């Protein structure tokens, strides 16, 4: 298997190295990642300036490519330039921090997998939940390898990707794997207003999670239960329930 690996935490992120090492036994792994952290960059791409690719080495001595682009740029450059169009699978991660519910649209990690799905590759985004201290990427790396094998054996539907979240727990405390649906996540207190030394206001975007009982079967719920969450995601974001009622709106006047 030829596997394209990227992330949004940047080429030096420990989660990227852990995932590269976990996937190498399955085939050839091409690591193409942003030269600097690009978290919360969403699905942005670079159109108005040139992109560079620099060959370098990961801390374990293996070859990798750092790009000046976003995670989505890395997928395009990785597939077309580095891999000359021949890839079987894409992984993005392991991200330091969860990507649950509506956070999917902010995430550079997930956007890379979305880009992979658009380009026709079976694609997976992997994240480990924040725990405030040192992260252990090993359980997520191990599960990623298992999932890669499952995709190789079962295939994946076109225009879909998988969004994986792993609890920040040692292997023995993870209670299993749930195939979930995308949950809800909303933030409150989103703006932190401060004043600079010249008396002018400036703002930090932050926000704390709105307390809500997570719906059963959702990614948010699985993580609360100390289980690995795997959400199949479709590129089609259409709200089908609105198509019929909206046809009655007589929009043509
Ligand atoms: Mn990140």
Q: How does this structure look, described?
A:
The protein has one domain (2-183, 215-246): Survival protein SurE-like phosphatase/nucleotidase (Stationary-phase Survival Protein Sure Homolog, Chain: A, 3-Layer(aba) Sandwich), CATH 3.40.1210. The chain is of the alpha/beta class. The chain contains 6 helices and 13 strands. It has a 9-stranded mixed sheet with strand order 3-4-2-1-5-6-7-13-8, with helices on both faces. The model has no long low-confidence stretch (mean pLDDT 95). Helices cover 24% and strands 26% of the residues. α1 crosses α4 and α2 (71-82) packs across α3. Bound molecules: manganese (II) ion. Manganese (II) ion (MN) binds at residues 8-9, 39, 95, 97, 109. The site of manganese (II) ion has 6 residues, from loops.
Please supply descriptive tags for the structure shown above.
253 residues; alpha/beta; Stationary-phase Survival Protein Sure Homolog, Chain: A; nine-stranded mixed β-sheet; two-stranded antiparallel ribbon; 13 strands; 26% strand; globular; binds manganese (II) ion
């Amino acid at each position: 298997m030829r596997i394209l690996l990227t992330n949004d935490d940047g080429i030096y992120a420990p989660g990227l190295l852990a995932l590269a090492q976990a996937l190498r036994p399955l085939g050839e792994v091409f690591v193409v990642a942003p030269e600097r952290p690009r978290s919360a960059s969403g699905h942005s791409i670079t159109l108005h300036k040139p992109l560079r690719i620099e060959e370098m080495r990961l801390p374990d001595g293996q070859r990798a490519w750092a790009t000046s682009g976003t995670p989505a740029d890395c997928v395009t450059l990785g597939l077309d330039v580095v891999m000359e169009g021949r890839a079987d699978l894409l992984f993005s991660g392991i991200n330091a921090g969860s990507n649950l519910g509506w956070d999917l649209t902010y995430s550079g990690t997930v956007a890379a997998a979305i880009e992979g799905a658009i380009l026709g590759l079976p694609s997976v985004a992997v994240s480990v939940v924040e725990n405030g201290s040192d992260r252990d990427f090993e359980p997520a790396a191990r599960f990623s390898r298992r999932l890669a094998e499952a995709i190789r054996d079962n295939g994946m539907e076109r225009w879909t990707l998988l969004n994986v979240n792993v609890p920040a727990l040692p292997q023995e405390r993870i209670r299993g794997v749930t195939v979930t649906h995308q949950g809800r996540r909303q933030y409150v207190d989103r703006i932190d207003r401060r004043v600079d030394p010249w008396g002018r206001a400036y703002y930090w975007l932050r926000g704390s999670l709105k307390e809500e009982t997570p719906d059963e079967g959702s990614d948010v719920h699985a993580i609360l239960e100390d289980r690995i969450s795997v959400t199949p995601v479709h590129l089609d974001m259409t709200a089908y329930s609105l198509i019929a009622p909206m046809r009655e709106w007589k929009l043509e006047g």
